[in-house]
Amino acid sequence: MSPAGAQPSTQVRRDTVQGSSLAAKPGAVSSRNSQSGAEIADVIAEHVAVNADSRHSRAVPEECMSVIDPGAENAQPFDQGAQDPDLASLLGQILITRGMLSEQQLQFALSEQRERGGRIGQILVENRFIDGGQLAEVLAYQFDMMRFDVGMEPPSPEALLHLPADFCREAGVVPLRAEEQDVLVGTCDPTDSSVQQRVVAMLTGHNVSWAVITDADLTQALRLYDADTAIGESGMPDSGAPARAQQTVVADTEDIRRQVSLKPAVRLVNELIEVALREGASDIHAEPEFDHSLVRLRIDGELRHILRISMPAHNMLIGRAKLLAGLDLGRRAEPQDGHFSAVAGEKQVAVRVSVLPVVGGESLVLRLVAEDGELPSFPSLGLSDDVAHTLRTVLDRPQGLLLLTGPTGAGKSQTMYAALGRLLRRSLNIVTIEDPVERNVPGFKQIQIDERSGIGFADAFRSVLRHDPDVIMVAEVRDLETARIATQAATNGHLVLATMHTNDAIAAIPRLRAMGLETYMIATGLTAVYAQRLYRPSCTHCGEMRPIEARLREMLKGLLGREDVPEQEFHGIGCPQCAFTGYGDRRAVGEIFVLDENAQRLIYEDADADALREYATGTGMVSLREAAAQKLAEGVTTAVEVMRVGTAS
Ligand SMILES: [Zn+2]
Q: How far apart are CA 578 and CA 588, in angstroms?
């Protein structure tokens, strides 16, 4: 190799890159952790510009030499005996040493390469001297890279989002795996360092490592980019949205449009909507945070983190949502609103799209409103006959307050809709006050509260009372004012349904007291409190009875406060039907405390939670823990699941 000082400056700096990262450790090229990261980024940018016109020329000898030379100095096993330092010959020597190729075959291929150019490996494969898999294995060995078999492990959708399909097709690379900042990229030609440098430049901020794939692997992986159309593109911008300004449409809109039509973007949006519906979420949020994006779901009113995605994935998500809602892809500095319809399984949902420019990019909120389908019933949710029967008797009363309680994700809103569905059949005037409206139900008058414009639950409630309702559902009692109006209405001929955040049914009473609600209002207004959790029944396709571990049985005894706990559990070992989780769809389990005269007296006497609980269980209330334990005893679920439900708060 010539002394660096004798080279033109571009060449010197390019060698610096290769010497410090590519050649020193071909399997892990980093543009972030290296001490001279900024310098390398400069060089890469320069290099990309230099190579822009020569991107189709593969295996330029000078390029190959600069990659392979340091390896030769580090005594790679086969180059010692190589008569020709040329890369093609080196590859050939490895194949010959391994007994995969004869000297004559190599000479034939080399002469063909001299005549028509091209990669030596490709020529060997075309002549059927070796197959693609053998070539990939030897190249992986030669360049100290991993051999990746796409047939065995397809690229993840998240990984595919890191590079555009057109570039991958042209450069013969494809992202295979992505986790946090690490991206594993497959290449058909590890000798082509210019492609590697372009990839590193495109993935600035990521740690890029390399794997060798065959041409067949590449074709198969690229197929995953092809667009599909699971979600109908029938979106419309909302009438209230600002008018489009044609002059702000940027030149790359077509590029964005192409990108967000790619399968990974389509799949990301579809999968997020499916997950959100499965989890009973009302909103999907995606917002930039530093160099990545946080995706969160709003479940029972609370935001829960579910996923961290890269910024390219975030931008694709935003672009896809805009495309579906008919919004302006190029306009990124103004808020935009729109909507589209999506079908996930048997559910049809209206998706309201809101995009807001924020620091670091754009923030996205997708609000999901179920459009049709039957309201759930108590049995369909999994409620036991006893609990469902008690709930029905409470709902059949002309007035009173029924509280539904439980932590976030306990499925309260589904049970609420089931309760309202029962009332709907009696042609009552039903008004709901929700935040947000999770489901459009014909027959309900549904009010969306808007705290920002000053219309809270209490204000909405007062307006509703002037609307002559029979039944009022208020999504959440979170302040004294709402609690007071709800209990007053419940004693004035209205049936009021509301949710609260408490761990069990009894805890709602001290909670109302702590809010400042007068004891007599609790005693006279409150009819019943229902508390709920969701548990997972074991998969019926792969479930089998097995003994419960001694350690778990001890924990169960502690949880239930009794010695006689089951010795066996029904446990799913995992099968395709349950996606190898061992569990089926979540079901509800609940406890209900109906206030009778004695309970009212206890409340008047300021009895504490323990005294109330003792009275409730003494008069037949089956506690949440016992209800869950019953599912274990009945051979429906596992001890671990009972522990999870019993300790959830
Ligand atoms: Zn199963």
A: 18
522 CA distance to ligand 1 middle (Å):
46
Q: What is the pLDDT of residues 304-323, one digit of tens each?
A: 777 778 888 888 889 889 88
Separation of 536 CA from ligand 1 center, angstroms? 12
Q: ∠ at Cα 304 (435, 473), nearest 5°? A: 25
pLDDT at 158 over 80: no
C-alpha of residue 627 to centroid of ligand 1, in Å:
24
CA angle 25, 26, 27 (to 5 degrees): 95
ipTM above 0.90, yes or no: yes
Distances (CA, A) of 321 to 233, 333, 361, 583: 10, 16, 15, 32
Name which of 545, 547, 541 is nearest 574 in CA terms: 541
Residue carrying the six token digits 């949902």:
349
**378-532+587-618 has CATH 3.90.180.10 classification:** no
CATH 3.30.450.90 residue window(s) in the chain: 251-370
CA–centroid distance, residue 544 to ligand 1 (Å): 10
- Range from 156-160, 285-289, 454-458, 592-596 that averages highest in pLDDT: 592-596
Distance (Å) of CA 126 to CA 92, 130, 169, 463: 15, 8, 20, 79
**Is 410 within 8 Å of 532 (Cβ atoms)?**
yes
Q: What topology does CATH give the domain 251-370? A: Beta-Lactamase (3.30.450)
Residues of the chain with CATH 3.40.50.300: 378-532+587-618
pLDDT at 467 over 50: yes
Distance between Cα 478 and ligand 1 center (Å) = 40
Task: Phi first, then psi: give them for residue 273, nearest 5 degrees.
Answer: -65, -40
Residue 406 CA to residue 589 CA, distance in Å, equals 11
CB-based contact 161:172 (threshold 8 Å): no
3-class secondary-structure state, position 562: coil
